[in-house]
Specification:
This protein is mainly α. Helices cover 67% and strands 2% of the residues. It has 13 helices and 2 strands, in the order ααααααααααββααα. The protein has helices at residues 4-14, 27-46, 48-52, 61-86, 92-100, 118-135, 144-174, 177-196, 208-213, 221-239, 264-274, 278-291, 293-311; strands at residues 249-251, 256-258. A two-stranded antiparallel ribbon has the order 1-2. α2 packs antiparallel against α4 (61-86) and α6 packs parallel to α8 (177-196). It starts with a helix and ends with a helix. It binds Phenylacetyl coenzyme A. Phenylacetyl coenzyme A is lined by residues 35-36, 39-40, 43-44, 47, 74, 105, 107-108, 123, 127-128, 131, 134, 196-200, 205-208, 211, 217, 221, 271.
Length: 312
C-alpha cells in the first residue's frame, strides 16, 4: 500500500518528471540507484585496466594517443558517476572501499584478459558498443543527475566505439593473415562476455521489474541484448568476421537475430569473483590507491597552506 508521498512520487515518474537530489524518494529507490550508479562507476574505473595493458605496446604513436584519450575518458565517466552517486547521500570512500574488499560488483566483462592488439579494437567496438546500447536509454532514466551524466557519457562512448571498429577494419583491410587472425581471435573471446554485460535473462533478473516501474531502467536486459546483437551483426559482416555462435541466424518472422544459449554458469562464476582476472583487477586497484596516497596527502597539505596564507 502506497502512502501519499509515495503516490505523488510515482505520479511524477509516470508523468516523466525527473526526480532531483533534494526531492522526496522511497528508501529503496535511493538504494537501488546507489547500487546501480556505484556499480556503473566502478565499471568505468576497473574498465580502464584491460586497455591500460596496451598503452605501452600500441603499434603507432597515433594509436597510443587515441588509446590514452579513451582511457582518460573512462576515468572521467567514473568520477562523474561517483558524483551523481554522492547526490543520493552515498559516501565515495565507503563505496570504493566496498569495491576494494570485493563486496561491490562491477561489470563482468572487465574480468577477461586483453591478449592481443586486436582486443583494443574489439573492446572499443563490442564493449563500448554494448555500453552505448545500455546507456542511450539511461539518458531518460528517472533520476535527473544520472540521466544528465549519461548524455555526455554517451557522446564519448560513441567515439570509443568507432575508434575500436576502425582498428579492426584497418587490420582486416590492410593487415597480413596473422593480423586478421588476431581480429577473429579477439572477437571469439569477447563476443559472449559482451552479451553478458546486459545482465541475466529477464526471468532471472531480480531487480528489473521494480527498476522498470520506477523508470530507472527503460528496457529489460533481454530487450537491450537483442538490440545490441541486431545492430552489431551487420558490422561484423562488413569486417568479414564471424561470431562463435553456430545458432546465430536471422529470423525473418521475428525481425531479429536468433542466437545460442549464454553460458550463465560462467557469468555467475565471474560475479562471484572467479573470472580469469578478478583477483588481478582488484589488486591493481588497491595498489593504485596505496601508491597514490602521497599525492592526495600533498594536495590536502597544499590546500591547507593556501588557506592559511589567505587568512594571514
Ligand atoms: N556484471 O537484477 P539484475 C562501461 C548484477 S559499461 C556484473 O538484472 P540490474 C563502459 C546486478 O548488478 C559497463 N554484475 O540487475 C566502459 C545485480 O546484482 P546486485 C557498466 C552484473 O541492476 C567500456 C544482479 O547481477 N555499465 O563500463 C552484470 O537491474 C569500456 C542481478 O541483475 C553499467 O553499469 C554484469 N554484466 O541490471 C568502460 C550500466 N549484470 O546488485 C571502460 C548501468 C547484472 O543485485 C571500457 N547498469 N549484474 O547484487 C545497468 O544498466 C544495470 O545495472 C544492469 C543490470 C543492466 C547492468
Amino acid at each position: 500500500e502506497m502512502g501519499p508521498e509515495e503516490r505523488a512520487f510515482q505520479e511524477k515518474i509516470d508523468a516523466e518528471i525527473k526526480i532531483e537530489a533534494k526531492n522526496w524518494m522511497p528508501d529503496n529507490y535511493r538504494k537501488t540507484l546507489i547500487r546501480q550508479i556505484s556499480q556503473h562507476a566502478h565499471s568505468e574505473i576497473v574498465g580502464m585496466l584491460p586497455e591500460g595493458n596496451w598503452v605501452t605496446r600500441a603499434p603507432t604513436l597515433k594509436r597510443k594517443l587515441q588509446l590514452m584519450a579513451k582511457i582518460q575518458d573512462e576515468a572521467g565517466h567514473g568520477l562523474y558517476l561517483y558524483s551523481a552517486m554522492e547526490t543520493l547521500g552515498a559516501d565515495r570512500d565507503e563505496e570504493i572501499e566496498k569495491l576494494h574488499s570485493g563486496r561491490a560488483k562491477y561489470s563482468s566483462i572487465f574480468n577477461y584478459p586483453t591478449l592481443n592488439w586486436a582486443d583494443m579494437g574489439a573492446v572499443g567496438w563490442l564493449v563500448d558498443g554494448a555500453a552505448i546500447v545500455n546507456q542511450v536509454p539511461l539518458q531518460r532514466t528517472s533520476y535527473g543527475p544520472y540521466s544528465r551524466a549519461m548524455i555526455r557519457v554517451c557522446k564519448e562512448e560513441s567515439f570509443h566505439q568507432r575508434q575500436g571498429y576502425e582498428i579492426l577494419l584497418h587490420m582486416m583491410r590492410h593487415g597480413i593473415q596473422a593480423q586478421k587472425d588476431m581480429v577473429q581471435d579477439a572477437i571469439n573471446r569477447l563476443w559472449w562476455p559482451s552479451l553478458m554485460m546486459f545482465g541475466p535473462s529477464d526471468a532471472e533478473s531480480p531487480n528489473s521489474a521494480q527498476s522498470m516501474a520506477w523508470k530507472i531502467k527503460r528496457h529489460t536486459n533481454d530487450e537491450l541484448r537483442q538490440r545490441f546483437i541486431d545492430q552489431t551483426i551487420p558490422q561484423l559482416e562488413l569486417l568479414g568476421c564471424s561470431v562463435p555462435d553456430p545458432d546465430l541466424k536471422w529470423n525473418e518472422e521475428r525481425g531479429h537475430y536468433d542466437f545460442g544459449e549464454i553460458q550463465w554458469k560462467e557469468f555467475y562464476e565471474v560475479l562471484k569473483g572467479n573470472g580469469p582476472c578478478n583477483r588481478e583487477r582488484l589488486e591493481t586497484r588497491r595498489n593504485a590507491i596505496q601508491d597514490g596516497a602521497w599525492v592526495r596527502e600533498a594536495a590536502v597539505a597544499h590546500a591547507n597552506k593556501k588557506q592559511k596564507q589567505q587568512a594571514a
